[in-house]
Write a structure and sequence with these properties.
Layout lengths: L1 E6 L7 H14 L4 E4 L17 H20 L6 E11 L5 E11 L6 E5 L23 E4 L2 E7 L13 H11 L6 E6 L7 H16 L3 E5 L1 E4 L2 E4 L3 E4 L2 E5 L6 E6 L11 H4 L4 H4 L19 H22 L3 E5 L4 H13 L5 E6 L7 H14 L3 E3 L3 H15 L5 H23 L2 E4 L3 H6 L12 E2 L6 H14 L6 H5 L19 H12 L5 H6 L4 H13 L1 H5 L26
Parallel strand pairs: 1-2, 2-3, 7-8, 8-9, 15-16, 15-18, 16-17, 18-19
Antiparallel strand pairs: 1-14, 3-4, 4-5, 6-7, 9-12, 10-11, 12-13
């Protein structure tokens, strides 16, 4: 039996394209082929409230009827198809009362059959599936070509104390009661990416395969949806061996002959307790061997994976929104320089990248020189658009009308907002997309100006701490022969909004700031626990105060490409207004 794994890359609700794919695959399929498609392949994922909207439901049902008719009217060719899709149940008013995330079985000459319902509905971090779906309560095994196939959908493969049910145990009980021996297990997934997750999936799949003594077929989708990356990386394990693996971050097709099963083996209780995605979010990644702890260094492999993840995200966002021009505010600092470098490396020939340098009264000459050198290195145009005269005019108008000087933080912020306004004026004029250049450290402590340097349609660096920004820049320079001028990396970070300003006048050094932030965000450590790790009490309290006060800014921030297990955005929801300190 040959298993054909369709690692698809699609757009949510693109029913015409999905139907055409199915029609083509059905026509070209052969006897003895088992075709697999990802979780919710029929619709795309995640759907959120779209799944409840009448227009979407009507279009989905019309599409489903069309696919059903396709299979019913086709001559049996001996292939089987397993699709991820939705199953709706309606009340007397034709409103959905139950929605299930299911596997549909397709065989030529027959109607589509609902053969399995997802049992574990993740309800943490970026997930809120309990809001929409009804969980399944039963295991199931289907037969094809005299082979017994165990079925799972995504989260169902993960053992966790946070779930009341364990689909793996339920599947074991099912095959034991019916005296069935599994020949393979299939998991149809829409599993979001974060650094390190690929190895975690393989480890868990191998463990399950050992328990049942059969190969494990894991199929994942590819896409970037708003903030979430689906990285593909589909694979097949047989015992401890990975016998096939799909590409990361792009569509792929795997054709695998069903191997002879490895014998089941007993798994120790310690190995059995494998964390699921929820618990792994808070697994420490701080280097606790140092006092105080620091973030671990990104490896070259990590940096390359990050670049590939960003490339998929940017290109998918552009493909789905229709932009072909990119506009970036370049300051001479590391963050904007890194964004320009990344975009220059990942853009296609038909896409245009434009950088705009907007000097003010406090901008240093070296900032222009370094910006110009960077643009020369990557082969793009740099336009200079000074804000000095706009700034002077606003200060004069402010004093004339309010009778007082515009100064201090107000004067600093107006410079940033002027740049944001000019950036979007250019964006409107050229129909270009503006990419944000803030990093995770700045977003965490509110070190950005609303409607100023926080503007943009998409944040490329928003899930990378400042210390990681430097590491990624160094990796790019090592691989692409120093395209970022070295002085951009080595000069002290500054917003250049007042005389001789440097970031570390307002913030702790980034290596310590980032460790505190990671402790607060990912591990939910208390201030006392942070201090016990060797971090400075004053820096902890100052950082926490800034972090706690900045939610109103984060709530209005643009979508952030999610690269880590715990990120700002979908998966981070706390009240803006709160009284505790």
């Amino acid at each position: 039996m040959q298993i054909v794994m369709h690692q698809t890359h699609q757009i949510i609700g693109d029913f015409d394209k999905i139907y055409t794919e199915i029609e083509t695959h059905l026509r070209d399929s052969k006897k003895g082929e088992l075709h697999l498609y990802p979780e919710l392949y029929f619709t795309g994922y995640p759907l959120q409230d779209l799944v409840l909207q009448r227009t979407f439901i009507e279009r989905y049902l019309a599409f489903f009827d069309k696919v059903n008719e396709l299979f019913e009217s086709s001559k049996d060719n001996g292939a089987m198809f397993l699709f991820g899709g939705l199953h709706y149940q309606f009340d007397d008013s034709n409103l959905p009362i139950k929605i299930r995330n299911v596997i549909w079985k397709g065989i030529s000459g027959q109607k589509l059959e609902d053969v399995y319902t997802k049992q574990l509905l993740p309800n943490y971090d970026i997930f809120d599936e309990e809001k929409y779906y009804e969980p399944g309560k039963e295991a199931n095994v289907i037969t094809f070509e005299s082979k017994n196939i165990g079925l799972l959908i995504c989260e169902d493969m993960w053992f966790s104390s946070s779930h009341d049910e364990d689909p793996i145990t339920r599947l074991q009980d099912y095959i034991s009661e019916k005296s069935i021996e599994l020949d393979l297990i299939v998991n149809l997934s829409a599993s979001p990416f974060f650094l390190g997750k690929e190895a975690k999936r393989i480890q868990r799949a191998s463990l399950i395969g050992h328990k049942f003594g059969c190969p494990f077929f894991y199929l994942n989708m590819v896409a970037f949806e708003d903030e979430i990356i689906f990285d593909g990386g589909s694979f097949v394990t047989n015992g401890d061996e990975v016998i096939a693996q799909g590409n990361l971050f792009r569509a792929d097709l795997l054709k695998v002959e069903l191997p002879e099963s490895k014998p089941a083996k007993t798994i120790s209780e310690k190995a059995e307790i494998v964390e699921n995605t929820w618990e792994s979010l808070f697994k420490p990644s701080l280097d606790l061997t140092q006092r105080p702890p620091v973030l671990p260094q990104l490896s070259d492999e990590d940096c390359q994976t990050i670049l590939e993840a960003i490339q998929l995200s940017v290109q998918d966002y552009i493909r789905k929104t229709g932009f072909k021009k990119f506009t970036i505010a370049l300051s001479g600092g590391i963050d904007s320089a890194l964004v320009v470098a990344i975009l220059s490396l990942i853009k296609t020939q038909e896409q245009e990248l434009e950088a705009i340098y907007m000097p003010g009264f406090y901008s240093r000459g070296i900032s222009y020189d370094l910006s110009a050198q960077l643009c020369q290195n990557v082969g793009i145009k740099l336009t200079t658009l000074p804000i000095k005269f706009f700034h002077s005019s606003i200060k004069n108008s402010f004093k004339d009308n309010f009778g007082e000087d515009l100064e201090g933080l107000s004067d600093e912020n107006i410079q940033s907002r002027l740049r944001g306004a000019l950036l979007f004026a250019r964006s409107n004029q050229t129909n270009s997309i503006v990419f944000n250049t803030s990093n995770k450290s700045e977003i965490a402590v509110g070190y950005s100006t609303m409607y100023g340097d926080s503007v943009g349609a998409l944040s490329i660096l928003g899930d990378l701490y400042k210390s990681e920004v430097f590491q990624l820049a160094n990796y790019i320079n090592k691989k692409w022969k120093g395209i970022i001028p070295e002085e951009i990396i080595t000069r002290p970070p500054s917003a250049e909004l007042r005389e001789d300003q440097e970031d570390q006048q307002s913030l702790p050094p980034y290596e310590r700031l980032d460790a505190i932030l990671e402790g607060l965000l990912s591990y939910r450590l208390s201030l006392k626990e942070l201090h016990d790790l060797g971090l400075d009490q004053n820096e902890i309290e100052k950082t926490y105060d800034l972090y706690n006060k900045s939610e109103y800014k984060r709530r209005q921030f643009c979508p952030i490409i999610k690269l880590k297990a715990k990120s700002f955005g979908f998966g981070y929801r706390v009240p803006i207004t709160k009284s505790f300190k």
